[in-house]
Amino acid sequence: AHSQDADSSIRLTDTDASLARLSAVQKRYLEDPYIKHLVPRSHLQPPRPPLINIGTFVRATAIDDLVFQWLQRSTDLGTRCQIVSLGAGSDTRFWRIATGAHKVALAAYVELDFPEITSKKAMAIRKSRDLSAVLGNPADVTVAHGGTGLHSPTYHLFPADLRLPPADTLGTLLASPSGALLSPALPTLLLFECVLVYMTPTASSALLQWFVDYFSPEGSAVLGSIVYEMFRLQDSFGRVMVENLRARHVSLPGAAPYPDVHSLPGRFLALGFTAARALTLKEIRKSYIPRTELERISQLELIDEIEELDLVLDHYAITWGLFVSPAVAVAWGEW
Ligand code: SAM
């Protein structure tokens, strides 16, 4: 049993994530015309400090790039693809993709989160013309699950507690024999942005395993997964991060098992993924963000905590893995 209070503290982390994104947009690190519609007026706060904005920028840019590569590869191979965002919160990625260059590549975009979060999101979508217009013809958009879900031709929002057995959640929501929403024949990308740390490693593995089992019987399975998370929480700075969250009653049962960046791909490789890689945000900022972008953002705000920046960025990582059947491995290539 999970306590209601502990769960509401976990849900509050979505407000943090959306405020951090809004702040990075207001300060022009990122462009996102949709996030403002998902932050309730009553939650508005002053912009975040530069260090947080830079972290948000590095994280968003890197994940956007991995997702872009996924959509581009699908397009190149003449297939459409599916994206499933677990613990999606107030994320705007669906709207950005559906109005971008790769919109025709998207067969389905599925978001899952606690019902308290999905009902607020469903409400925000219905209240905002900018958000609802992207879903298509209003006649094709339906509210479901007593207001906690929403369906449109491409976008689907579902309430679920991701710690429960996946057969009962994902199985019934996405793969019911009477009409599976996810096709096991299409390349499918899973997004876990800042969510696995709130559940036990056993529960996280069970989620990933469910997808592997759903897709692997297909001779042409292509399953990708991106995890963004804080890690290295055993060192002195990491312990401060954990303490700060504890003070807000957020516990991190998923924090322990990956002490360093080299251990992170193990999460995927242990489940039979074909390949997996991990980079810290510090490494991504140094070696992967285009120089022109780094120069552009260096003009936005004065920052005097440059050493602290590296320390913070060194405690967040992106891990991405690919599970691909031998028959399509060469065509799909590396990621
Ligand atoms: N992925 C979004 C992003 O990056 O902007 C939101 C991140 S927020 C830090 C974590 C989200 O995971 C929250 O919306 C929270 O409700 C959700 N979450 C955490 N544990 C969950 C669970 N057991 N079941 C469903 N959602 C969960």
From TrEMBL:
The keyword Transferase applies. Its EC number is 2.1.1.233. Methylates the carboxyl group of the C-terminal leucine residue of protein phosphatase 2A catalytic subunits to form alpha-leucine ester residues. Belongs to the methyltransferase superfamily. LCMT family. It comes from Mycena maculata. GO terms for molecular function: protein C-terminal leucine carboxyl O-methyltransferase activity. S-adenosyl-L-methionine binds at R59, G87, D161, L162, E193. It catalyses: [phosphatase 2A protein]-C-terminal L-leucine + S-adenosyl-L-methionine = [phosphatase 2A protein]-C-terminal L-leucine methyl ester + S-adenosyl-L-homocysteine. GO terms for biological process: methylation. It is an enzyme of class 2 (transferase). Gene3D superfamilies: Vaccinia Virus protein VP39 (3.40.50.150). This is Leucine carboxyl methyltransferase 1. The keyword tRNA processing does not apply. Keywords: Methyltransferase, S-adenosyl-L-methionine, Transferase. Transmembrane segments: none annotated.
